[in-house]
Amino acid sequence: MKSKNKSKKIIPKLTSAHAALSLDVKTLGLEAVYGAAYLMMDKAFVSLSGDRAGKVVVSLRAKDPKAVKPKALAEEFLLDLESQKVRWAVAKNNLPIREHIAEQAVLIANGTIPAPSAAAAAPEAAAEELTAEQRAEIEKLISEVESEIKSMNDKKVAADPKGIKASWEEKQEQGNKAGL
Amino acid sequence: MSRLTALAKGAAVDTGKLAAFNFRDMGGWHLLTNDWGQFLMLSTEDFHRFMAGKVAASDPLYPELESRGFLKDRLDFPQLAANYVKRSSFQWFPGPSLHMIVVTLRCNQKCQYCHSSVVDPSRTDTDMDIATAKKTVDFIFSTPNPTICIEFQGGEPLLNWPVVKFITEYAQAKAKAGNRKLLMALVCNFTLMTEDKLDFLFDHHVSICTSLDGPAELHNKNRPFLGGGEAQPKVVHWLETIQERCNADPKKKYYLPGALMTTTRFSFDYGPQIVDLYVKLGLEQIFLRPLSPIGYAKRVWKDVGYEAEEFVRFYEKTLDYIIDLNVSGKSDIMERMALILLSKIVKGEDPGFMDLRSPAGAVLGCLAYNYNGEIFVSDEGRMVDHQGDPIFRVGDATKNDWTSVIDHPTTRACVTASTLDNQPMCQQCAYKPYCGVEPVFHYETQKSVFGQMPTSGWCVSHMGVFDVIFRKLRDPRSRKVMDKWLERDQCRWQESGNVPAGEPEAVR
Predict the structure, then answer these.
(1) Nearest 5°: CA angle at A36, between A35 and A39?
(2) Same structural domain for residues B482 and B368?
(3) How high is the pLDDT of residue B441?
(4) pTM, whole model, 2 decimals?
């Protein structure tokens, strides 16, 4: 998204007590409208009406009418609305990246993959050819991870990959069975 | 402009090159942060260039943006993931580590702001009995975290000393048998401390913390004895006594007493005097804590409470005084809240502070146990129960098991509500990587565990304190002092081998 505030100018309808703004959801995005409305709640009573797939009317009434005039409320809303558009665009553009990094973090925390500092500490091994034994070990690990991911995906509810629901005794028992 | 701050009107933006980040207009400069805990403080001009996608690869700013994960096509995924793990180490811990046991509701003080829902010293029916204490410890040891920190709270825990002793000895025996790491802490008002009790606490490595609100006139006003009298001289006496014993024995060096102050409306006139008293007593840290409108404090809020903005002003002014003392060499006292935030911001580590986590510490990091064995998501949740609302009760140590507590609907609600990515304003806040919200606070103040951040005193207060800390980080004089604090804090934990970063704040 490249922008320099070229969108159609929104003219608020003002009364002595209210400001009303008619907004095109298709161009602005519903999240941005909701987001800007939410941020006004410390200063104004905000009501939304209309069609969430088409035009939405945002009405603003100051909580302290002596402190803030409807025109100032409308200006503040529009300023935040522009920022909300940008914030939501950035969030949407980056969603798969954030998910990927979060997944990597879980794998590092579980010890499934090494943290980069640990990998960097052993550069010599990485430069050498893998032995058959090492290759077998890696294949075994990959197969374990794939199986783990499959079982996580198969469990539709209440997945507990870290065993957080297991009591200390259950964990110890599992450890004993595994010969740890 | 909202409290979140906004872009300048008509600002040019090219979102295609921007990695996931949040920003804050700090007035003359901009703060950038991202989920991985990285931050950058940019001039407004540089910020505008960044937003417009006009920072070329040859620009000196480019490597800064690149190395900290702000350029979408230049992300080092493994490194950012590693930072994420380090910053959020609590997320990977299996279950709660901080267990607060209220051994009695009785107290011999009647503090103006008391959160703890205390009762008269004659009410021995609110003492925990040995059978309940045993079952409570058994429950604690059934939770899965390898590290356990038991904190005695009240009421005044020394009013039920036999149970404090029993729990200490029983828990230590269980820890030894089960090969668990155990930390123990006592929070008391010192009015009932004796040399014998102190010997026991030292012998069993129980760390000690008390409340010290400041000079006698302030402390005694905030924390009067039931029936009148002065509490502050006793606190000062025992702090000095314990310090003398700790300093005389290198083995006790790491059990130096701690003190906590709670800020009431009356504290506002005493900032420097409070700090001076802590310095005079040789205390290493002071924790400038705001008052929460929970429990009794809610009822007397109009007398002792204040607006969140007033606290932020007090905090900044008093922190300035502390930094001045450090710069002039008159003292090296540290401010605890600043230290917690600096650990998160500068070191990218989680110091284990339950209030500022996403999700919050409730059940995932801590549990509170009432004298009768009832289990709550936090000590604040127990106080709400004492006011007649059991909403934060998640079990009973005498009847339930760990699975039922972690699976409890209230646990799920608290976790969902306190995950900042679920909060419309928090998810876009520049302080998200370092902050947290507290479901009990918002239930008490806004009648919703989610709360409403634009009108939340919690948000105003924490955002204000973060503003103060980041402004100090940009000021070379303050930054130098804060870097020294971080270095000293790190050395202290490393030397003691006791509580590394990421484990619970033993005393809240």
Answers:
(1) 90
(2) yes
(3) 96
(4) 0.88
Give the whole-angstrom CA distance, residue B356 versus residue B50. 30
In a domain, B101, yes or no: yes
pLDDT digits (tens, 9 = 90+) for B222-261: 988 876 678 899 999 999 999 999 888 877 776 788 999 9
Cβ-defined contact of A169 to B142 (cutoff 8 Å)? yes
A35: contact with B, CB 8 A cutoff = yes
pLDDT at position B33 over 60: yes
Residue B450 belongs to a domain: no
Q: Note which residues in 44-83 of chain A have CB less than 8 A from chain B.
A: 76, 79-80, 82-83
Measured between alpha carbons, how far is B486 from B343 in angstroms, rounded to an integer?
7
Q: How confident is the model at residue A126 (pLDDT cuts 50, 70, 90)?
A: very low
Q: Is A92 on the interface with B (CB under 8 A)?
A: no
Quick check: A155 pLDDT over 60? no
The answer on B108 and B159 residing in a single domain is yes
- Give the nearest partner residue to B10 out of A5, A87, A119, using CB atoms: A5
B399 in a structural domain: no
Q: Is B147 found in the same domain as B217?
A: yes
Q: Identify the closest residue of chain A to B460 by CA–CA distance.
A: A42
pLDDT at site B498: 43
Q: Identify from B13, B38, B54, B148 which residue to disrupt to test chain A contact, counting A C-beta atoms within 10 A and taking the largest count.
A: B13
pLDDT band at B1 (very low <50, low <70, confident <90, very high): confident
Shortest CA distance from A9: residue in chain B: B10
Give the closest-approach CA distance of A129 to chain B in angstroms.
Answer: 23
Please count the structural domains in chain B. Answer: 2
Residue A6, pLDDT score: 52
From B70's Cα to the closest Cα of chain A, the distance in A is 11
Q: Which domain holds residue B221?
A: 95-372+476-496
- Do both B364 and B230 map to the same domain? yes
- Residue B397 pLDDT greater than 50, yes or no: yes
Identify all chain A residues contacting B12, using CB atoms and an 8 Å cutoff.
2-4
Closest CA relative to residue B366, chosen from B383, B381, B354: B354
Contact of A2 with chain B, judged by CB distance below 8 Å, is answered with: yes
- The answer to whether residues B247 and B102 belong to one domain is yes
Residue pairs between chains A and B whose CB atoms are closer than 8 Å: 150
Residues of B180-216 as b/e, b for ≥16 C-beta within 10 angstroms? bebbbbbbbbbbebeeebbebbbeebbbbbbbbbbee
Question: Binning pLDDT at 50, 70 and 90, where does residue B32 land?
Answer: very high
CATH number at residue B138: 3.20.20.70
Q: Which residue has the higher pLDDT, B192 or A174?
A: B192
**Helix or strand run (H / E) with residue B105:** none
Pick the last residue of a domain from B32, B56, B87: B87
**Which residue in chain B is spatially nearest to A98 when comparing CA positions?**
B20
Instruction: Cis check for the bond before B121: say yes or no (omega within 30 of 0).
Output: no
Cα–Cα distance, B325 to B77 (Å, whole number) = 42
* Cα–Cα dist B50/B61, whole Å: 9
Nearest to B4 by CA among B28, B30, B27, B24: B24
Transcribe B303-337 into DSSP letters: HH---HHHHHHHHHHHHHHHHHHHHHTS---EEHH
How close does chain B come to A135, measured CA to CA in Å? 22
Q: Which of residues 154-173 of A touch B (CB under 8 A)?
A: 158, 162-169, 171-172
A132 — contact with chain B (CB < 8 Å)?
no
The last residue of a domain, from among B87, B121, B146: B87
Tokens describing residue B36: 């991985």
Class for domain A13-100, per CATH? alpha beta
For chain A, the domains span 13-100, 129-177
ipTM: 0.90
B257 belongs to a structural domain: yes
Which of A41, A116, A167 lies at the smallest CB-CB distance from B142?
A: A167
